[in-house]
Amino acid sequence: MTGTDPDFRTDVAAEQARLAEHDVIVFQHPVFWYNTTPLFKQWQDKVFTLGWAFTMDGSASRLAGKKAVVAVTTGVPADHYTPEGANEATIETLLSNGHATLRLCQFDIQPMVKLYGTAFGLSDEDLATAAKQYNELLASFAA
Asked: Is the pTM of this model over 0.70?
């Protein structure tokens, strides 16, 4: 978003047009205070409008059937994101409001991509493995 909107003045029509022209949408963001970032939430609040991104009468939205991939990074290791861990919840539980939003917008929700422990210095090998897996996932949508 910052590459196309450096001043954070969301051009709703342009953003909706970008979403409309693609079959796979990747929502990639860090986990920030157990949620999405405020800027992403602001973008979502502006772009996901009633009648376009979601409907209340059961009719198809403009996003219906598009694949949605949520890709997140966390600062802490994966063991923090368990019911027994420091956060006492999985990442899926903490981000469930985002999942509900995607469901309301009628996306075909794909499995979440997670990269844990980024604040503690991932090894080059771990980072390379994660990048390879992420690239393979993205390439699978082009096939």
From this structure: yes
